[in-house]
User: Fold this.
Amino acid sequence: MRNLFAILIFIVLGFGSAFYVGFGMGKSLEPKAYDVEQEGLKEKVIIKFSHVVAENTPKGIAAQRFAQLVNEKSEGRIEVQVFPNGLLYRDDEELNALLRGDVQIIAPATSKLTDLFPEWLILDLPYLFKDENDVARAFEGPLGNKLFSTLENKGVKGLALWDNGFKQMTSNSGPLIHPDDFFGQRFRVMPSLLIESQFRKLGVTPVPTPFNDVFKNLETGKLDGQENTLSNIYSKKFYQVQKHMTISNHGYLGYAVITNEEFWNSLSESDQQIIKEAMDQSTKWLRENAKLLNEDVLKRIKQWPDIEIHFQTPEERKEWKQRLSLVYDELFSILSPDLIQEVKNFKP
Ligand code: LMR
Assistant:
């Protein structure tokens, strides 16, 4: 009997405390720290920045600098988490991930926007820019602004145009001196109809391939060659599986740093200002340093004994230019007159 009484008391007390806690009757006794923590969490902004290249490249370094600047300017309240090497998304996935809002910033090569935004094919034109000054004039001037305006109200907001550098050609199937030397080869290309067309003019089969599959496909012989900047050729070790490289500077590889429009509009004006300032500073740093980074890795590639490097002569450049420039008319047939004029402002 005494046992039964003890069990009853136990049950009554158990229910009582469950009600007390469950329905919040003891709220005033709860520690305040809980609320403070929740407020802190609410204010913190996390930005996932995904890209596909190595950390020791112009884009990789600029992304880190940007993250650090945002952190400093916001006193740690805005955190930019950088995911390099396609760890989060491959290059053929990242734009959709941005549009879905799964990632807040990406910086794809401009060629990778061309499927959705064909005007960006302009930046794939061969020999459009003669040097980095031309590139800066385009990226910071009316051409860059007009290209960014094509993204408006389509879920994407442009933040900056970032530099990498001029592209070079590599191959395993012989030196690339004259346009006919390319004939019959299979080349990796970024997904851009204009780049594909350019390679067809050389008698090459273009094979659109995600960036982080290129090394493997060159190594196993699925591909003969590829075009890329020196920093990408070096950091992804393409030079170790290619016998020939021509320093041709035939096209430019730059990046559109873009964010999800809805995410951007959800930020306060002062947070937008912090991000803009950090972006401007990292863009300026890149504009001053991308060329030097590419030049530096050329010295390293030169030390690799198994690759032959050819520096294109002005006569050879003329031959390549003549063959590749056939794609200009193809692009002009789909561009508006004002964009054609922008292109003509650059082409010598
Ligand atoms: C490539 O796919 O070759 C480049 O776009 C990689 C990069 O982001 O520089």
In short: The chain has a mean pLDDT of 90. The chain has 14 helices and eleven strands. The pocket of (2S)-2-hydroxybutanedioic acid is lined by residues 52-53, 59, 91, 109, 164, 190, 211, 228, 232 (CB under 6 Å).
